[in-house]
């Protein structure tokens, strides 16, 4: 769990004694490609930290079409990553059914902690309370806010370019149909945008 410790120590310092307490709350899980680890309609009571692999969360619209909400991956070889924590804060905090389904797109491994155990850690002292506050702000609310604003305010081309600049490796790991869904466009539209972008680069 050294990877997780390094991520948390970007925010707070953690002694070995404190880390041993943290480790005792997590358990290791592996999941295979195509596996659904959480279905919409159930309460999401855990936080999954992705150690390796690829996953996505999605919801169904009124026409029965699934739309990708977030992508999650960590590549141990090149250290590329996006959205390391899989959770549904609204479902777990309000104890209501989740609107999201979480699907494994590539064999993956995780460190998993229940939200009740996580809250116990946050209550240990001010330092852990700070960690919880920053994680909620940066990894949950900020990500959601930016995603909604992008979908509502940016053009499809702008969303594509931003994803390409910030997470270029994602195009090597994720099928275009899922990337298109994540960008809120049809696969055909994504193909057209990519073709035009290549032509512009060529010019």
Largest sheet at a glance?
A: 7 strands, antiparallel
Going by CATH, the homologous superfamily of the largest domain would be Jelly Rolls
What percent of residues adopt helix (DSSP H or I)? 40-55%
Strand content: 15-25%
Given as residue ranges, the uncertain stretches (5+ residues, pLDDT < 50) are none
Count of distinct structural domains: 2
The rounded distance between the terminal residues' Cα atoms is 47 Å
Provide tags for this entry.
alpha+beta; 9 helices; Jelly Rolls; 203 residues; single chain; seven-stranded antiparallel sheet
Summarize the structure.
Helix content is 47%, strand content 25%. With 203 residues, the chain is an alpha+beta fold. A hairpin with a 5-residue loop joins strand 3 and strand 4.
Can you put this structure into words, describing what you see?
- The chain has two domains: 2-153, Jelly Rolls (Sandwich), CATH 2.60.120.10; 154-203.
- 47% of the residues lie in helices and 25% in strands.
- The model has no long low-confidence stretch (mean pLDDT 87).
- The radius of gyration is 18 Å and the shape is globular.
- It has helices at 2-8, 16-23, 89-94, 115-122, 126-153, 156-166, 170-173, 176-183, 187-202; strands at 27-31, 36-38, 46-60, 66-74, 81-82, 85-86, 101-114.
- The chain is α+β, with helices and mostly antiparallel strands.
- The relative contact order is 0.15.
- β4 (66-74) and β5 form a beta hairpin.
């Amino acid at each position: 769990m050294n990877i997780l410790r390094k991520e948390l120590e970007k925010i707070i310092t953690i002694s070995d004694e404190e880390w041993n307490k943290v480790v005792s709350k997590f358990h290791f899980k592996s999941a295979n490609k195509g596996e659904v680890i959480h279905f919409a309609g159930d309460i999401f009571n855990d936080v999954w930290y992705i150690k390796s692999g690829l996953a996505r969360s999605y919801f169904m619209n009124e026409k029965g079409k699934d739309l990708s909400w977030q992508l999650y991956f960590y590549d141990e070889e090149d250290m590329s990553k996006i959205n390391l924590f899989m959770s549904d804060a609204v479902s777990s905090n309000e104890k209501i059914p989740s609107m999201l389904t979480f699907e494994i797109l590539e064999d993956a491994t995780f460190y998993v902690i229940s939200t009740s155990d996580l809250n116990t850690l946050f209550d240990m002292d001010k330092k852990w309370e700070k960690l919880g506050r920053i994680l909620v702000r940066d990894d949950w609310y900020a990500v959601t806010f930016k995603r909604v604003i992008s979908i509502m305010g940016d053009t499809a081309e702008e969303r594509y370019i931003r994803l390409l600049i910030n997470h270029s490796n994602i195009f090597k790991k994720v099928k275009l149909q899922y990337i298109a869904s994540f960008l809120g466009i049809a696969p055909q539209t994504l193909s057209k945008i990519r073709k035009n972008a290549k032509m512009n680069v060529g010019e």
